[in-house]
Structure formats: C-alpha cells, structure tokens
Amino acid sequence: MYGLKLDWMETPEKPYYTLEDYTGPEGRWCPGCGDFAVLAAAQRLCRDEQLAPEKTVFVSGIGCSSRFPHYMKTYGFHGLHGRALPVACGIRARRPDLNVFVATGDGDCCSIGTAHWIHAIRYNMKMVVMMFDNNVYGLTKNQTSPTSNVGLRTYTHPRGNVVSPLDPLQVTLGVAGASFVAQTVDFNPPHLLATLTAAFHHPGFAFIRILQRCPHYTAKIFDPLQQDPSQMALLTHPDGIDGGEGLSRVFPNRVEHDPSDIRQARALVDGERGVPVGLLYRNPDLPRYDEASAAGLAATRADRENLLEDQFDWFSI
Ligand code: SF4
Ligand code: MG
Asked: What does the alpha-carbon distance between residue 173 and residue 317 come to, in Å, rounded to a whole number?
C-alpha cells in the first residue's frame, strides 16, 4: 500500500449521527396531523445537538401524540394514561446522564395526569415536555378534553361543550417552581425547532404547549391563526427564542417581552395582544429536585452496605 494515505479511513471516536439514526418506523397518525411536524422537529433537534440515541429517552402517556416514542430510534417508554411525567421524573432521578423528553397531550396531561403535571413542575427536574394541544381526545375518538373551547361539538357533547377550557400555560405559570414556559405552533417548523432547542438547553423542567392541528376532529380550530397570523403575537427579546430573521415576515404582530417578567407573561397568556407564540417565562436559577435526588448515586456497593448497617445499628436495642 505504498503511498496510499489511509488515515481518513480511521473510525472516528465520536460517531456523527444523521437524521436516520433517530428515525423509527413511519408514524401512524392521520394524514396532515400536526404530530408529524413535531416528530420531524424532535429528530432534527437530536441531530443538531448530536444526542447519542442510547442516551436519549422519549416518554409518553396515552393518546395520539403518545405514540411518539415508537417513531424515534432512541429509547422510549409508552406508559399509562396520564403517567408520562412520573415515569420521566423517575428516569431523570436515577439516570441524570440521559436526555429526557416527554410527549403528552391535552387529555393525558391536563385531565387524568393533572396531579403529576403540577408536581413535576414543582420538582423542576431537567426534561423537555412537549404538550400537544389539539383541544380534543383524538385517540378515543372525539371526546371533549380539558382544553376544548365552549361550544365545540364532540361525541361526548354533541350540542357543544359547556365548560370553560383550562389554560395549560396559565396553570403552569401558576405553580411554584415553574422555570420554563413557552408556546409554539406545529405549522411553523422554524419556530417549533427553535423552541425545542431553547427548551433542551434550559437547566430544568421546560414546558412547551404546542398548538397542534388535528385535521380529523378539530380541523378548523387553528384556521384563523393560519389564515391571519396577525392574530398571534410573536414574543421577541434577546433572552427569548430566536427563530431566525424569516419569522418576522410570518408573524407581523410582534411583542417585546422579557421572559423574566412573570406578571407580563400571565397577562400575555390572557390574550391581550393576540395568541402568544414564544418564550413566556424562564428562570434558570430555581432549585432542581433531580440534583438533590442524585446525591449518593455514585456510591459503591460497599458504601451502600455500610450505610444500611449504620441504619440497622440505629434501631438496635
Ligand atoms: Fe392526529 Fe387527530 Fe388523527 Fe389523532 S385523530 S392522529 S391527533 S389527526
Ligand atoms: Mg388531545
């Protein structure tokens, strides 16, 4: 092999991951479902951040969007209805070396999973929570969900929903320990990806409400926003989400918002200036329960046995 340069053939120590390394089987959602856009954004985020697939886990509960882990070629846990967050917290507590993502829907998170949601916000463990909000239970075929608007006709309320919807952003902002709250839309891929990226880099519990199109059951609910983007308010700030220059053409209505200002965040969620899109609140300095619970994780078997013996001695008489 005289004169042949072979060093380029060496296997690099750190592999470069391509989109294929995160792409699982084709998603079995309805054609046009917004979940496809979120899946594509999550795969791009993993590629852009070069997350090792074996160090990445997507956790979900039950619902259309909760099929998400099946379509990622990473680890995944498709759990029980409403229980995505306790599973994710458990993973985070024992395996702080993993990148933890949660896929949950408005039914999964805001109804049966509400108690877990509230306490997961309080724990502020590092993870990215993607809350797909299509205002309906899709998997169980068109039932009123906690975020369904008054008047929405569903199979459970054929004459129209009569109960005011819960606002997932307002609830999250209202819980002590909320440290990252953002809203994005599945129909703007650059903003969606920029939001996921900002959430991934947040040192704590990052909650993203994604306004998600469900062409099968709530086909028209986001039409007004798509047809008239001035009904949305793009939140801008040097500490906010940077979705690139092109966004200013798509969102003519822009509102300067400092994401450290929780009072203004709450006012914006009330829709004073339009449907807010962007980073509402961020506090990177709040305590994290996963850091506290990680104490002792590196203990050896001998350390643990000694600790147990000490405890037994404590109770001896
Ligand atoms: Fe998507 Fe709606 Fe179909 Fe579920 S029912 S897969 S949310 S379009
Ligand atoms: Mg839903």
From this structure: 51
Is the confidence at residue 233, as pLDDT, over 50? yes
| Tokens read off for 205 | 């519990």
| H-state helical runs in 73-167 | 84-94, 106-107, 114-123
Q: What is the pTM of this model?
A: 0.93
Q: Is 29 in the pocket of ligand 1 (CB under 6 A)?
A: yes
Mean pLDDT (whole number) for 241-250:
86
Burial class (CB in 10 A: 0-12, 13-18, 19+), 314: exposed
- The sign of the CA dihedral 225, 229, 231, 237 is positive
Other Cβ atoms within 10 Å of 65 Cβ, number: 31
Nearest to 167 by CA among 219, 113, 110, 114: 110
189 touches ligand 1 (CB under 6 Å): no
Q: How far apart are CA 207 and CA 159, in angstroms?
A: 33
Ligand 1 within 6 A of CB of 61? no
Distances (CA, A) of 148 to 66, 110, 151: 19, 11, 8
* Res 314: pLDDT: 86
Whole-number pLDDT of residue 12: 61
Pocket lining: 134 vs ligand 1, CB cutoff 6 Å: yes
Count Cβ atoms below 10 Å from residue 112 Cβ, excluding itself.
Answer: 16
Residue 18 has pLDDT above 50, yes or no: yes
SS3 category, 27: coil
Give pLDDT tens digits for 115-132.
Answer: 999 999 999 999 999 999
Q: What is the Cα–Cα distance from 195 to 185, expressed in whole angstroms?
A: 10
Query: Of 223, 27, 197, 213, which is closest to residue 133 (Cα–Cα)?
Result: 213
Query: What are the structural domains, with CATH classification, of the chain?
Result: 16-288 (3.40.50.970)
Q: Tokens 């899946």 sit at which residue? A: 39
Question: Which amino acid is present at 157?
Answer: H
Q: Are 59 and 116 in contact (CB under 8 A)?
A: no
For ligand 1, atom 6, name the residue with the nearest CA.
29
